[in-house]
């Protein structure tokens, strides 16, 4: 399974980044991550049919097209999806790389809610884009802080690692 991983956090030492890195450690196969911070703000004028997309958009679309499955890992901001991540998804709407592709949505939060609002919104958006959300591969990870090691920037909590392993297996099966 060739995986494209998207992180909704641009923060250094991000807990989302720790979850994403641990998931990729557990993944047995090729994986790429996309630099979504390099994307311009989505503008349909830049997405006109026949026009060459901006280079960062072309790179994202190439990576998404080459992937068998997509792993989205994100925090929640103000009960919503981080703008940078939503922007990246907007660039993939018209080009269609998400269509029929198995997708895992994982959110993590320092709070008990596990980023449930952002998780639901991401799933709604990706389903609207005709992505194939794999429910068994989706996780809402609560109280993420003490479950990660800031030095290794990895998840250390065994239960969470077990959940990540199962999520990747579900994605692989899908
Ligand atoms: C502007 C802002 C809004 C936030 N809103 C929420 C929220 O609605 N729900 C939530 O669970 N966490 C919220 N948080 C806390 C983030 O989940 C927390 O900062 C988390 O560590 C960010 O992920 P990261 O470590 O990957 O950067 C918010 C944080 C910021 C900075």
TrEMBL record:
Organism, scientific name: Streptomyces gilvosporeus
Residues annotated as domain NADPH-dependent FMN reductase-like: 1-138
UniProt name for this protein: NAD(P)H-dependent oxidoreductase
Superkingdom of the organism of origin: Bacteria
One GO cellular component term: cytosol
GO molecular function, one term: FMN binding
Matches recorded under Pfam families: FMN_red
